[in-house]
Design brief:
The chain is mainly α. It has a single domain, classed as Up-down Bundle (Growth Hormone, Chain: A), CATH 1.20.1250.20. 75% of the residues lie in helices and 1% in strands. The chain contains 22 helices and two strands. The protein has a two-stranded antiparallel ribbon with strand order 1-2. Helix 2 runs antiparallel to helix 7. The chain starts with a helix and ends in a 10-residue tail after the last helix.
Length: 463
Amino acid sequence: MSASDAEGGLTPTGTITRTTDRRRVAVATVVGTTVEWYDFFIYAQAAGLVFAGLFFGPLNDDFPGLAQIISFVTVGISFLFRPLGAFLAGHFGDRVGRRPMLVLTLILMGAATTLVGFLPTYAQIGVAAPILLILLRVLQGISAGGEWGGAVLMAVEHAPKQRRGLFGAFPQIGVPIGLLLASGVNAIMALIAPGDAFIEWGWRVPFFLSIVLILVGYWVRRRVEESPVFEEIAARKEQVSAPVARLFARFTPLVLLAALVFVGNNAVGYMTTGGYIQGYATNPDGPLGFERGPVLCAVAASSVSWLVATFAAGVLSDRIGRRSTFVLGWIVQAVFVLTLFPLVNSGSIGLLALGLVLLGLGLGLTYGAQSSWYAELFPASVRYSGVSIAYAIGSILGGAFAPTIAQWIQTATGDSTNVMYYLLGVTLLSLVATLLLRDRRGIDLSPANEAEQERGIGVWQRG
């Protein structure tokens, strides 16, 4: 490696960024997204493990199983508010900068998560308990909707163009790391406070720990510099007054296709991140009845394979392209969707863990290149709005109610094979959407190149 490479490299705008600055951005994005998704996932796991009885128990009196379905519905409700977070963060991220939105969304997520840990239950304050729970979940959804776009743009827009996949993978690995932390902390609490103790107070501790993680994330994110692409936009005074309106006026098909690319990964991923597998495997009245601790450890193991595959996909996408990496990922994911429930239903915790670990490989290969591809799809002036809103819409169509749908299918048919068909269907849908978009690896991301960025986005277009 040359001395110039060691000291710095060209950003997409042509300015010099030191290697140390890029590394600081990489660390800040992975730490921040890890904290955000830890907060998001401990709620989803609690929804699968304890919220049904603590907040919605009376619903089972007339309709057995309804409390668990509604508990998963609250996981999905937050997704309906992700577009609001994406609209707000996208507007201000394209107007005033990426970094301020990253700090604000982090604080909002942490505050909402911590307050969940303090909530009284239905037995203590009645119907006010689930109402407050849902309100705090809504705040989590708003935060999640705005955070991801800023994190990936900070990473990708600071990166040299030949390594955007690598740098874009850093905020992506925050998701499996967040799942690993959430599952690990819950597994530890299941050991410290087993049985009724977990239901009485053990589940609250992971929510309280969010305070420490938020302080760390805030400190790290405050130390990073603003995106060089946005700095050039500001210097040229080319901020769009209404970026969201311009986005939909000119790029609606692109937003929808990019959203559909995310559907397959998000729906399948929420089998674990949304708490469905945890609830299915630990339900004492279900077909398996495993203890919470071993199941949570299996989920934690799957997050490791997801992390490794996510990082590998980012690196691979710099070599073979974003679209080719996704196509490979959809094939792998489809294969391991077909093996998931046969392994889960084997009655062996080891085979359940194997099924989840294999699924994590497919999830990583269909997630690692997403940030770099999304950033390269949208023009500079509406990029924050574009990536955030496409991600938010994809999450609604994909993961928002995936655990609820899976639970309903399982309850209605009594056969997890039908859940498998649902997951295979959304995987194939995303494969089709992937094939309809162009690979734009290495395109100049600066505002000076906006005209080229707007051309030939879909395979049906010229240019």
